[in-house]
Amino acid sequence: MNVHRVWAVLAVLCVCLLGAAAVNWDKNDIEIFELQQALEQSEGPGASFYSILGLRPSASQSEIRKAYREKSLEWHPDKNPDMPDAYKRFERLGLIHKILRDERRDRYNHFLSNGFPKWRGTGYYYSRFRPGLLMVLIFLVVLSVAVEHLVRVYNFRVNQKRIENLRRSALALAWGAWFQTPKEAIKGTKPKSVPAQKKVRVPLHGFTDMPPAPSATAIATGQVDWDAEGQKVRQAVTAPVAATESMRIVDMMVFSDGSMAVIDDESGEWLTIEPLSDADAPTLSDAWPAALVRRFMSSPAAEPAPAVDTADATEPTTTSAKTSKTSAKRRKHA
């Protein structure tokens, strides 16, 4: 399974999981919301089923029954004849007591801890931001694209450094440790001529301690000590390999123009080793959504049915008709 297919499967799984988790409020939730809203309008903001009974959310059932009896006597309409909403308060108290006695109490405690949604004209919604399913899906797609892009860029940079290290190691073995030194910077002896081609044996990922090439800015400003750079390269090439370190050695051919090739162990053919340019770095257009769109857009059209030769198709029919007529004549003469 390729990378694009894996990302597509993960996206579909996220959609299914989020779709299954996205449910509407049930009737018990709506009843709790309406009762809580009416309670806050009557008793003030911050009022809860427990606060009007003088209890904590962890109160036991016996404590709830005792507090309800005391509060029902206090809020009874007969004892509050001058209160216009005494009957509604008393009825609300009874509903609160019922909720706190059954399994709906756990649901109320959940909203009490996480916040109650507010009525917004068409339904209950949280006043603070709660992303919907579409926004969550968009976020997951963006996150997956970002992660995929970062992984691709990281792998590209690692491969870029490995290939560069391999090429520099091959050049050091073919042209000497001072292979990168400009001719005008060589002191004393005359610069050696570069062979047209030379075969060398190099570790697959190059020498471990091979220094990176000097930057273009340092070369342009004359800040590079080419003699020191050559010494670093020679130390990297001649450094002993640890006994615990296993290196795969490959055969490479280095040409005078700086190009090189490595031999393939399976086919025995020479494969060109080109440096990875920054222009080849992965872009967002290589991510799985764009690749998925390109795949659907470039899907081959249905192949047309092969043409049938009418002459060939009618010939067997004509022959069969002639055979039938001959058989009929023979039966008649018989």
Describe this structure in words.
The chain folds into 2 domains: 24-128, Helix Hairpins, CATH 1.10.287; 136-276, no CATH class. The strands form 2 sheets. It has a 4-stranded antiparallel β-sheet with strand order 3-4-5-6, covered by helices on one side. A two-stranded antiparallel sheet has the order 1-2. The protein has 10 helices and 6 strands; from the N terminus they run αααααββαβααβββαα. The protein has helices at 3-21, 27-43, 61-74, 86-101, 104-114, 133-175, 216-220, 226-238, 288-297, 310-333, and strands at 118-119, 124-125, 197-203, 249-255, 260-263, 270-272. β1 (118-119) and β2 (124-125) form a beta hairpin. The longest helix has 43 residues, at 133-175. By secondary structure, the protein is α+β, with helices and mostly antiparallel strands. The protein starts with a helix and ends with a helix.
Count of DSSP strands: 6
Given the C-alpha coordinates, what overall shape results?
A: rod-shaped
Point out poorly predicted stretches: 18-23, 310-334
Number of helices: 10
Tell me the radius of gyration: 42 Å
- Portion in beta strands: 5-15%
SSE run: HHHHHEEHEHHEEEHH
Mean pLDDT over all positions: 79
Main location: membrane
Keywords: Membrane, Signal, Transmembrane, Transmembrane helix
Biased composition (Low complexity): 313-326
Membrane topology: Single-pass membrane protein
